[in-house]
Amino acid sequence: MSDVLTGRRGIKRLTLPGLPALLAVGIAFPVLTPEPSASPAYRSPSKILCGSWVKCNMRGYDSYGYGANASRAYWRMSPGDECTNYAAYVESTVYHVPAPSYLLGNASQWPGEAAAHGVPVNHTPSVGAVAVWDAGTFGIGAFGHVGVVEQVGPGDSYIVISQQHMGSPYDYNWTLIKAHYPADEWQEWPSSFIHFRIPARAGIGYFDPRTGGYALRDSLTAGPASRTGRLWLKGAVPLSGDWLGTGTDSLGFYSPRYGIFHLLGARRAANPDVEITVGPPRMVPLVGDWYGTGRDSIGFYDRASGVFTLRRSLTDGGVTAFRFGRPGMVPLAGDWTGGRRDGVGYYNPATGIFNLRNTLSTGAPWVSFKFGPPHMIPIVGNWTGLGRKDGVGYYDPRTGTFHLRDRLSAGLADVVARFGPPGMVPLTGDWLGG
Q: In this structure, what DSSP letter does residue 161 have?
């Protein structure tokens, strides 16, 4: 079974089940590099990846249930087979952007109206942004067109968008659009991108222990990875934390062979990465904001004794140590009450029971409940983005599916999303910030 590391403050946080197999030896110093996506082999500005709600769903490109909700107006757009209503639907239900207080109008009017109300509009794509084609651009009618950016390639070399009302034969589709093509070929690069503020909430991801690659998705849905990379360290355990207190998670890694935490972008300096050794080797690493500072720190769990050892901060070498639960459990960390500091917990893989404690001390669990079948991989994160209170979840390695629950109680999952192939190591974190 696997161990878990999680994070802080109820903002979406990585929960990473550790891997006994990965606690094998590795090189001392991990290196994270972007994972370049292969350049499309076709010589055209765009390629349709899937067409129709049903076929896109079958191919792993989520239509987000728009077919069942198209009759409802979003952001006061015209309902039905309309690009503006679909974009408003995805922005509000997938990326949880609050409905604007003003009317955006038809697609070609969106950039001007948004900019007039302080929303950034530029030529730089980002996941969750609205892509806009002005009226009269190649292949676009008098009212313009909008879609939603779902993926951005390395160096902004391409984007993947989802879009509605594109005409036969694929009125709904996901399309890959390459940059730097002439503006007289279909489908060309958008005229601009609108960056509505996306609230902080947990996204999902996975780490492949066989290849060292990782993939992150900025929403709790199926679809392509928002970004990818590779960890060039055999046996590393990936971490996620808000090291600088910016509200956005960065990655890091733990080398079990040496007990070294390697945290990427953890300081504002010419060399921003930080290496810290805490405790003996072959522990289970933890990440959390233990004292409500707004920045994450680190710690570890000793499976042999059931003792948590938590470092006060990345700069303060002092630690807090206590035993919670019996040995051999899967440790957890999260802001269970929304009080701006993390508590701890443990998951019993034999029973599927979560045991959570608010304070960093020995004692009885604050709450215990069963969620999901036994022998799953537990995860923690603020799935709703409301306040700072974390929920829990589990990852089923047999199917590659995330099951997430907003409340700390037994019951059904509020979100079920399949992302990536089976047998991965699940990740969660606030990849976008807010």
A: E
Tens-place pLDDT, residues 47-102: 999 999 999 998 888 899 999 999 999 999 999 999 999 999 999 999 999 999 99
Contact between 303 and 348 (Cβ < 8 Å)? no
pTM over 0.85: no
Return the percent helix, strand and coil in the chain, to nearest 5. Answer: 10, 35, 60
Q: CA 147, 39, 432 angle in degrees (round to 5)? A: 50
Those residues with Cβ within 8 angstroms of residue 253's Cβ, 6 or more apart along the chain or in another chain: 30, 32, 231, 233, 236, 237, 238, 239, 261, 262
Nearest residue to 7 (alpha-carbon basis) of 221, 214, 248: 248
Do 130 and 149 contact (CB within 8 A), yes or no? yes
Find, among 82, 95, 99, the residue nearest to 144 by Cα: 82
3-state DSSP of 306-354? CEEEEECCCCCCCEEEEECCCCCCEEEEECCCCCCCCEEEEEECCCCEE
Comparing CA positions, the residue from 425, 419, 333, 397 lying closest to residue 22 is 425
Gap between the Cα atoms of 409 and 146, Å rounded: 40
In tens, the pLDDT along 164-189 reads 998 766 899 999 999 988 777 889 99
Residue 230 sits at φ, ψ, to 5 deg, of -145, 140
Q: How far apart are alpha carbons 176 and 162 in whole angstroms? A: 9
Q: Cα separations (Å) of 408 from 8, 221, 301, 411?
A: 16, 21, 22, 9
- Three-class SS of residue 295? coil
* Domains of the chain in sequence order: 3-31+200-429 (2.130.10), 46-194 (3.90.1720.10)
